[in-house]
Amino acid sequence: MQVTKNDVAEAIVRYTNHETTLDELVDWAENAMMEARFEPENHDLIRDIVARLGLADVREFGLSWDDCYDFLNRLGYKVKVSATR
């Protein structure tokens, strides 16, 4: 399995939209670190973000909205928040 910048961004967005839990995000990241290949042209960036996501369930690391915003920006995405009723 190859993990792309888009895959990482989608995982983060699913988490921030409460479509997956923190535990599911961490499991995905841990599995990606052990079993996946990262797209060569963005290998270091993807590896760094996925590694950090894999530690998000550790109290000392956690995962804030600012972290998610920063990760998405580093992946080349502009983040725009919208609230609906």
Give a description of the structure.
This protein is mainly α and 85 residues long. It has one domain (2-74). Helix content is 56%, strand content 5%. It contains four helices and two strands. It has helices at residues 5-16, 22-35, 43-54, 65-74; strands at 2-3, 37-38. The chain has a two-stranded parallel sheet. Helix 1 (5-16) packs antiparallel against helix 4 (65-74). The protein starts with a strand and ends in an 11-residue tail after the last helix. 20% of the residues are buried.
List the defining traits of the structure above:
85 residues; mainly alpha; two-stranded parallel sheet; 4 helices; globular
- Broad shape: globular
Our Rg estimate from Cα atoms comes to: 12 Å
Integer tally of domains: 1
Low-confidence stretches: none
Q: Describe the biggest sheet?
A: 2 strands, parallel
Structural class by SSE content: mainly alpha
> Helix count, per DSSP?
4
**Percentage of residues in strands:** under 5%
Distance from N terminus to C terminus (CA atoms, Å) equals: 38 Å
Helix content: 55-70%
Give a short synopsis of this structure:
With 85 residues, this protein is mainly alpha-helical. It has one domain (2-74).
Question: How are the secondary structure elements laid out?
Answer:
Blueprint: E1 2-3, H1 5-16, H2 22-35, E2 37-38, H3 43-54, H4 65-74
Parallel strand pairs: 1-2
Helix pairs in contact: 1-4, 2-3
